[in-house]
Amino acid sequence: MGIGGSRLGPEFLNEYLSLDGQVSVYFCSSFDLEEIKYALRECQQIDTIVFACSKSFKTFEIMKNLEYVKSWFSKKPEINFEDHLYGISANASAMTDFGIKESNQFHLLESLGGRFSIWSSISLPAFVNANYESYLDLLYGAHLADEYTQNTSWEFNISVVMALLSVWNRNALDISNHGIFTYNFKLRSLTKYIAQLAMESNGKSINSDSEISPFLTTQLIWGGYGIENQHSTFQWLMQGKTETSCDFIGVNNNEDGTEDSHEILLSQVLAMTFGQEDKTSPFKTVRGNNPCSIFQLEKLDLKSLGFLIALHEHKTFIEALILGIDPFDQWGVQLGKKLTMNARQDKGFLKTFFSPSILPKS
C-alpha cells in the first residue's frame, strides 16, 4: 500500500521483475478501496504479507487501506496480523503506535522525497520475486549514472542535453507537452514514473528568488507503451494541431523479439520526423517535424535500468538549475492534503467554499 512516489517506482520495478515471479504482488492506494478488495479476493491471510508505505505514515489513502486489511485479517483471529505487517516510513513512532514491530520497520530519511525514493527500502515489495543482488545491480547502474553525469563534459552529457532540450522545446519552440514511449513490455509503466519525477519537481512558477519565473517551466509529460499508443494517441501526434516533442526508449538487441520492437520504434520516429505530404488527398498528409530523441539500451537488465532512471533524475535536477527553481518541494500537492485534512475534521468545511455568497461573480 503506497501512493505517489511510494507506489509508482516500486510498481514499475515489480512489473519489470515479476513476469515469471512465483509471488503475486498487488499495489493498492484507491480511496474507494476497490483495489484492495479485488486483491484480497485473490489472497489468503496465512499466505499474505502487507507493506504499508508512507513517508509520514499519516497519508489518508494508505491509512484507510491499512485499516481495511487489518479488519480482513481479524476474520482469522488465529493469525497474528503483526507478524504479517511491515512498515516503510520516516515516522518510526507512528509505525510503532499502529502496532508494527520494530523488526518489521524500514526507515526512510525525512529529507527524501517520494519521487526520489526508488533506490530506498520503498522498493522492497518489488524485489520479493528477485534477490538482494538484483537490488544491488539496480543501485550500481544508478551509481554509474551519477559518475557519468558528474564527469562527462556538457556537450556529450546525456542528462545535460536532455535538460537543455526540455528547456529549449518549452521556451523557444513553445511546445507544452512531451511524450515518452517505451518499446519493451517490461518498461510499460516507466512513463508514469518519469511524469511524476519531472512534473512534481519542476511544475512550478515561482523561482528560488521568490519571483515569478521568466521561464516556462516543465512540459506536461505523457505517453506509455508505444505499441499500444501507436493504435490510439499517435493519430493525434501525427495529424493533430498541437506541437509535441517525444522520447522513444527501446532495447537494441535480438533477444526475445526485441529486434522487431526496435524496428517499429524507428519507423514511428521516421514518420514523426519526416512526415509525408499527400497533395491528392490532403487529409492523409502527416506534417512531421516533431522533435524526437531515441534511447537505445544495448540490453535490458537492472544495471541498465538503474542507469536510465538515474539519468532522468539528473536531467530533472539540471533543468531545475537552469530554470532557477527548487525541484525538491511540492507545495501544490501539500495544499490538497491540507484541504483534505480540514474536510475530514469538519464535514461542512468544503461546503463553505461552494456557497453562492463566496463564488466568483464571473
Plain-language structure description:
The structure is a single chain. The chain is an alpha/beta fold. It folds into three domains: 123 residues, 3-Layer(aba) Sandwich (Rossmann fold), CATH 3.40.50.10490; 192 residues, Glucose-6-phosphate isomerase like protein, domain 1 (Rossmann fold), CATH 3.40.50.10490; 32 residues, no CATH class. Helix content is 42%, strand content 10%. It is built from twelve helices and seven strands. The strands form two sheets. A four-stranded parallel beta sheet has the order 5-4-6-7, sandwiched between helices. It has a three-stranded parallel beta sheet with strand order 1-2-3, with helices on one face. The protein starts with a helix and ends in a 17-residue tail after the last helix.
Low-confidence stretches: none
Strand order of the largest sheet: 5-4-6-7
The first-level CATH class name of the largest domain: Alpha Beta
Q: Report how far apart the termini are.
A: 42 Å
> How many DSSP helices?
12
**Domain unit count:** 3
The CATH architecture of the largest domain comes to: 3-Layer(aba) Sandwich
Number of strands: 7
Largest sheet: 4 strands, parallel
Task: Assess the beta-strand content as a share of residues.
Answer: 5-15%
- CATH topology of the largest domain: the name is Rossmann fold
Structural class, by secondary structure, is alpha/beta
User: Which of globular, elongated, flat, extended, rod-shaped describes the shape?
Assistant: globular
Output the helix-strand order.
HHEHEHEHHEHEHHEHEHH
Helix content: 40-55%
CATH homologous superfamily name of the largest domain?
A: Glucose-6-phosphate isomerase like protein, domain 1
The rounded Rg comes to 23 Å
Average pLDDT over all residues? 92
